[in-house]
Design a protein that fits this description.
Largest sheet: 7 strands, mixed
CATH superfamily of the largest domain: HUPs
CATH topology of the largest domain: Rossmann fold
Structural class: alpha/beta
Shape: globular
Strand content: 15-25%
Number of helices: 12
Number of strands: 12
CATH class of the largest domain: Alpha Beta
Length: 361
């Protein structure tokens, strides 16, 4: 999917902006909401074992909406403990869904760059078309992440996105109700590759309160109120009703999602490595959670052999083989290391799995 940068902009405010020489003007004292918010974000980074301050360049993904504008404003004005302001740039992706509004969003983000004195990378995706296997939302997300990854690699940077607690709770319920948790996992990670989500424990209402405190405007995406998209309908109807019945529901879902992700990350990833190598060799794209699902299915079908049919005509199957050997050179036995001379090291026969990935003709 192609993408073309239509604008690469660098700006510095004349006086009183983020790029001025005085510390006071660069880092004004935050208000009550902003002070609490930046402390929560810093604590979240530390809890995730991120070394602060971050030394690499950081691209803040800004759509123009309240979440991303709030993240960018907070980090640029009060985020010196996370990274100096001259290490930040804004990156905006124009999907062109709403021709006039989308262009206005891009211009708005550009103006923010001028006002705050930071570089802006503005990309427009031409001809985004829905495929037979994905929704528009999925297509847009894939295209967006492709650009983020390309730019992050090129600039040796991290990408900060403004996914927040309400998004996390909504995603968990969507996975639960659609059955997508089997392939997408039960949790949502703070970091995926070069992408980080500093607002993952922050409520949307807190972000909007912060923007009111600092008197900063934002754009509202009209598709957020459209019944065309399932996620938008969930956001408008299900989530408010859920929270009215269970006031702590969002907080509990967020905790559940982060805990589930932590547990998944602590699993032995060596069991997934063979699948990753096979898929990469075949040029197939898959999430790590997909490999976990394949592994679970193979265990469930543990009858000597297993066969799974995958999209695109691919088939993954397992053959069990017995291998004979006279000794084991080094082996863990009750947490003890043993040598070939140890009688426990003798092994006459053992069973191993042989995984084969092939495409039907």
């Amino acid at each position: 999917m192609g993408s073309t940068p239509d604008l690469l902009f660098f700006a510095e405010s004349a006086k009183g902006g983020l790029m001025s020489s005085t510390v006071t003007s660069r880092y004004p004292r935050p208000g009550p909401v902003g002070g609490t918010l930046i402390r929560q974000v810093i604590a979240f980074f530390k809890n995730q074992k991120i070394q602060l301050p971050i030394t690499s360049h950081i691209l803040i993904a800004v759509s123009g909406g309240s979440d991303s504008v709030g993240l960018a404003h907070l980090l640029l004005h009060y985020g010196r403990k996370i990274a100096p302001s001259n290490q930040f740039s804004l990156i905006h992706i124009n999907h062109g869904w709403r021709p006039l509004e989308s262009d206005q969003d891009a211009a708005f983000v550009q103006e923010l760059g001028v006002r705050w004195g930071v570089p802006v990378l503005n990309f427009k995706i031409p001809g985004l078309a829905q495929s037979r296997h994905q929704s528009w939302e999925a297509e847009a997300r894939e295209a967006r992440k492709k650009i983020f990854n390309e730019q992050a690699i090129q600039k040796e940077a991290l990408v900060f996105t403004a996914h927040q607690a309400d998004d996390l709770a909504e995603t968990l319920l969507w996975r639960l109700f659609t059955g997508a948790a089997k392939t997408h996992g039960a949790g949502i990670t703070f970091q995926h590759g070069r992408e980080m989500r500093p607002f993952l424990k922050i409520r949307k209402k807190t972000i909007q309160s912060y923007l009111q405190e600092v008197n900063t405007s934002f754009r509202e995406d009209s598709t957020n109120f459209s019944n065309r998209f399932l996620r938008a309908r969930m956001r408008q109807t299900l989530m408010p009703e859920l929270e009215s019945l269970f006031p702590q529901a969002i907080d509990h879902l967020v905790s559940l999602g982060l805990q589930a992700e932590m547990i998944e990350q602590q699993e032995d990833l060596n069991s997934i490595l063979p699948f990753e190598l096979l898929f990469q060799a075949a040029g197939l794209k898959a999430r790590r959670s997909h490999f976990k699902y394949v592994l679970k299915e193979s265990v469930r079908k543990n009858n000597g052999s297993a066969e799974l049919h995958l999209p695109g005509g691919w088939k993954l199957f397992r053959e069990k083989k017995k291998i004979s050997s006279s000794t084991v050179l080094m082996k863990s036995y009750n947490n003890e290391e043993i040598s070939p001379s140890d009688p426990k090291g003798d092994l006459t026969e053992r069973q191993t799995d042989r995984w084969i990935l092939e495409k039907s003709q």
